[in-house]
UniProtKB/TrEMBL annotation:
One of its GO terms (cellular component) is cytoplasm. SUPFAM superfamilies: Prefoldin. GO terms for biological process: chaperone-mediated protein complex assembly; protein folding; response to cold. GO terms for molecular function: protein-folding chaperone binding; unfolded protein binding. Pfam families: Prefoldin_2. Belongs to the prefoldin subunit beta family. Residues 1-52 form a coiled coil. InterPro entries: PFD_beta-like (IPR002777), Prefoldin (IPR009053). Keywords: Chaperone, Coiled coil. This is Prefoldin subunit 6. CDD domains: Prefoldin_6.
Length: 121
């Protein structure tokens, strides 16, 4: 196997790995987006409640009474955390996309070199 072919194989493997990593991160982002939407809905429902309303939090198998203000604060903190994680994941996605594009360009160059000069004798 030629040195050029080995180099091409390494680049293809690196490209596939970058694609797998990207797929995992996109799945994580989807999960975070779903959590964000759920918590937004909870926050909207909490906002509709009267200050005297009873709010319960599920802890294990038990429902525990919780103060409305505390419940809103907890959901707000959770939303802030999720939004921060979304930002972090978006940065990772950008880095992995750039890495995949760089690998793809390198693969194209190696394939052109392997094909040899165009129109030669």
């Amino acid at each position: 196997m030629s040195d050029l072919q080995r180099q091409l194989d390494r680049e293809m493997d690196a490209f596939r790995e970058a694609q797998r990593e990207l797929q995992k991160i996109v799945q994580a982002r989807t999960q975070l987006e779903r959590q964000s939407n759920e918590n937004d809905l909870v926050m909207q429902e909490l906002a509709r409640l009267d200050d005297s309303a009873n709010v319960f939090k599920l802890i294990g198998p038990a429902l525990i009474k919780q103060d409305l203000t505390e419940a809103k604060a907890n959901v707000g903190k959770r939303l802030d955390f999720i939004k921060g994680e979304l930002g972090r994941v978006d940065s990772q996605i950008k880095v992995l996309q750039d890495k995949a594009v760089a690998r793809q360009q390198e693969i194209m160059k190696l394939r052109q070199r392997a094909a040899g000069p165009v129109g030669g004798n």
